[in-house]
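Justification of computing resources. Each target in the renewal requires a structure prediction run like the one illustrated here; the chain below, 195 residues long, is used simply to show the kind of job we budget for.
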Amino acid sequence: SPSALRVVDLPWFERAVDVGWGWVPLAMVVMAGCAHAVNLTDGMDGLAAGCVAIALSVIGLWVVLGDPAHRTIVIWCASLAGACTGFLWFNSFPASVFLGDVGSLGLGAALGTISLLTHTALWLVIIGGVFVAEALSVILQVASYKWRDKQRIFRVAPLHHHFHLGGLSEPKVTVRFWIVAVLLAMVALTAMELV
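Resulting structure tokens:
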């Protein structure tokens, strides 16, 4: 029903909230933000595809374990996560195939859509924490450059390039970001008992 669609789970609270007509701007922010955050993350071989596979796997597991009403979405999560994992065979360093804007924007939009349909849009801030950090690094860098007399916070943005310019190799940055994505996913799953 339409009213069930407008429900959003609150992280670490034992309830969900019906946001009413506020669901429309929320959905717009989630879709645009998620698509662009994944696009910004797609700057190193395997980084975006690996993090999307982790996030989709967690949301799929979340649905399997806790929300039987949305079990058909598990098929979508599993197939997209599997496609991202298979894509890593060709996209891992040094990549021979790339996502590009079409792939990264599409995967980000799919992740946003799934989070809205499973009421985990607010949880996506934790589950997709790598994407949030990447987007925030760009926002903060641009704001600082514009309003602080061209001063920078990072060597360069997005965040993965900051670490790369700091001396870490591209594969090391990618794998460390995957580890952070897995840890954030585990944090979200441990909190699932509370929802």
